[in-house]
């Protein structure tokens, strides 16, 4: 059985990657490729809409797709918690549609985030530095935001991290009490470092994306999950069992 797919943002870097990947993969067929000049109605007739647009466009794409009964895979970062909560409320109780939101399709990245959350209970000083190519619109990155939020949840009973002088702009943007610093540099694809400090030691958890091919296995896993998705599922860790407990998806999942 073949699942039909519409790619919104098909002419961008990720759009071209996903389009080529689906063309090489049995069980899927791209039936519409939308760019900035396309009408959203062109996605109608597909079973899954893959949103690879921009943060200011993504919400409208998802709203249109879900209103018309398509399931959606979102690869656009920059979704706020308020936006996710609002979407979850609107989709509550519906079984004809669902949305899978993935800040980062890399297996290595999601493992690094899980490791950081695991380590966060043992260190009070934690900061994140994320670096991407200059064309990346949003900062902090969706991956950095999710990492900070997972660190915050892991430390729920311990309290916020130790982050002095955060009133100074150079100290970064606080997300779940974690200072996050964003670099936008030519020559980079994607890198994230989580620095944890304790008495007499530091721990650094790093992930470096060297090629867009790093996203392919995660994309295929998420496409498969999107086929039957209901409600809102956020994060590759909710699609793949990382060994830290069974993955879950819910209509009120948080990013």
Automatic annotation (TrEMBL):
UniProt catalytic activity: (S)-2,3,4,5-tetrahydrodipicolinate + NAD(+) + H2O = (2S,4S)-4-hydroxy-2,3,4,5-tetrahydrodipicolinate + NADH + H(+); (S)-2,3,4,5-tetrahydrodipicolinate + NADP(+) + H2O = (2S,4S)-4-hydroxy-2,3,4,5-tetrahydrodipicolinate + NADPH + H(+)
Protein name as catalogued: 4-hydroxy-tetrahydrodipicolinate reductase
Keywords: Amino-acid biosynthesis, Cytoplasm, Diaminopimelate biosynthesis, Lysine biosynthesis, NAD, NADP, Oxidoreductase
Organism: Cryobacterium ruanii
Pfam families documented for this protein: DapB_C, DapB_N
Domain of life of the native organism: Bacteria
Family stated for the protein in its record: Belongs to the DapB family.
All residue ranges annotated as the Dihydrodipicolinate reductase C-terminal domain in the record: 109-238
Pathway(s) annotated for this protein in UniProt: Amino-acid biosynthesis; L-lysine biosynthesis via DAP pathway; (S)-tetrahydrodipicolinate from L-aspartate: step 4/4
Keyword NADP carried by entry: yes
GO biological process: diaminopimelate biosynthetic process; lysine biosynthetic process via diaminopimelate
GO molecular function: 4-hydroxy-tetrahydrodipicolinate reductase
Record-level GO cellular component terms: cytosol
């Amino acid at each position: 059985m073949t699942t039909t797919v519409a790619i919104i943002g098909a002419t961008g870097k990720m759009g071209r990657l996903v389009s080529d990947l689906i063309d090489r993969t049995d069980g899927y067929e791209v039936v519409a490729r939308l760019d900035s000049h396309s009408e959203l109605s062109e996605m109608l007739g597909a079973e899954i809409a893959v949103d690879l647009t921009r943060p200011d466009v993504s919400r409208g794409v998802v709203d249109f797709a879900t209103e018309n009964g398509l399931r959606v895979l979102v690869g656009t970062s920059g979704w706020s918690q308020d936006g996710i909560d609002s979407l979850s409320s609107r989709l509550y109780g519906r079984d004809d549609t669902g949305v899978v939101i993935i800040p980062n399709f890399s297996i290595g990245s999601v493992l690094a985030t899980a490791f950081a959350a695991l380590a966060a209970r043992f260190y009070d000083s934690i900061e994140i530095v994320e670096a991407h190519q200059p064309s990346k619109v949003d900062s902090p990155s969706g991956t950095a935001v999710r990492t900070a939020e997972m660190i915050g949840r892991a430390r729920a009973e311990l309290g916020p991290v130790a982050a002095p002088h955060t009133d100074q702009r150079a100290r970064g943007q606080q997300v779940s009490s974690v200072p996050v610093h964003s670099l936008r540099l030519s020559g980079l694809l994607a890198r994230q470092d989580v620095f944890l400090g304790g008495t007499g030691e530091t721990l650094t958890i790093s992930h470096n994306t060297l090629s867009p091919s790093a996203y392919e296995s995660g994309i295929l896993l998420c496409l498969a999950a999107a086929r039957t998705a209901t409600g809102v599922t956020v994060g590759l860790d909710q699609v793949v069992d990382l060994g830290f407990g069974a993955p879950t998806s819910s209509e009120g999942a948080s990013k």
